[in-house]
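Milestone 3.1: sequence recovery, worked example.
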């Protein structure tokens, strides 16, 4: 388990993993989605931290963070909280690494603070015009049905459901870790988040014009077997980020850092190394589609 410290924004506590508190105002910032939390990145953070400062966090409603009833469980609400955490720990320029709902959270923040974005890495997430919600999202978005579905969820039910969808069986320890944080306050947060984001495609598309103005490097890493966020959206990220390099991962599902961390690190490490280590005047060559 990653070592953490408490950071509060507007009275709501997140737990934050920070490999170099204080000395550097630039950091690689990992932002998780659902069901999170930052533990989803635990397998790749050590390798990335060899390149520079790394910051990761459990966002409200997830993991070891506060699970308050009155938090704004929406994309704008999480973007504000993310920005508050970065302010608290002194990150002025972020190399964003985003997964799942971390994409909307991080991209919403980036659209508001473009001068603070150093690079963007999208792991199975991004601007998804025309996206239609998957089966579980539709259940969570339905009143009463969503509550019943959450109440009946157990580790065994979750593992069977994920194994049915994912190209690779999900390790039981990953399922147990997710369920270890899944009290009713977490489950209520998930319902509120998905109900606030019924039209997430339109929410993200509204950010497109602002994000198209960014000139920062972008790396897209998309598992080909993701049953929830289709790989067809990988190459479409160039509609927003024209110079993005795009990598697809064969045989991996929605949680590629769980399925095969090295497959994620394959494109991610060279990309981040170039941003953090290589001379700014140099240029990268080629990409893999």
């Amino acid at each position: 388990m990653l070592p953490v410290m408490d950071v509060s924004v507007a009275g709501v506590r997140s737990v934050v993993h920070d490999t170099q508190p204080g000395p550097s105002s630039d950091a690689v910032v990992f932002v998780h989605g659902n069901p999170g939390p930052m533990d989803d990145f635990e397998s790749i953070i050590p390798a990335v931290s060899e390149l520079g400062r790394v910051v990761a966090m459990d966002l409200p409603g997830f993991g070891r963070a506060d699970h308050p009833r009155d938090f704004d469980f929406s994309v704008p609400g999480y973007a504000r909280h993310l920005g508050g955490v970065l302010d608290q720990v002194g990150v002025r320029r972020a190399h964003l690494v985003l997964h799942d709902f971390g994409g909307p959270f991080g991209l919403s923040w980036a659209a508001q603070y473009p001068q603070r974005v150093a690079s963007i890495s999208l792991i199975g997430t991004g601007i998804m015009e025309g996206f239609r919600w998957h089966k579980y999202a539709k259940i969570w978005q339905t009143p009463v049905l969503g509550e019943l579905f959450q109440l009946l969820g157990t580790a065994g039910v979750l593992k069977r459901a994920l194994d049915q969808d994912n190209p690779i069986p999900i390790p039981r320890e990953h399922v147990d870790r997710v369920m270890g944080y899944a009290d009713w306050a977490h489950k209520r947060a998930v319902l509120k988040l998905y109900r606030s984001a019924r039209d997430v495609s339109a929410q993200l598309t509204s950010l497109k014009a602002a994000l198209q103005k960014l000139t920062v490097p972008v790396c897209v890493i998309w598992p080909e077997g993701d049953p929830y966020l289709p790989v067809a959206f990988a190459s479409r990220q160039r509609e927003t980020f024209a110079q993005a390099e795009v990598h697809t991962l064969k045989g991996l599902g929605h949680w590629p850092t769980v399925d095969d961390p090295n497959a994620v690190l394959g494109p991610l490490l060279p990309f981040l190394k170039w941003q953090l280590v290589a001379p700014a005047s140099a240029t990268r060559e080629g990409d893999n589609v």
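Confidence is low (pLDDT under 50) at residues 279-289. The chain is about 40% helix and 15% strand.
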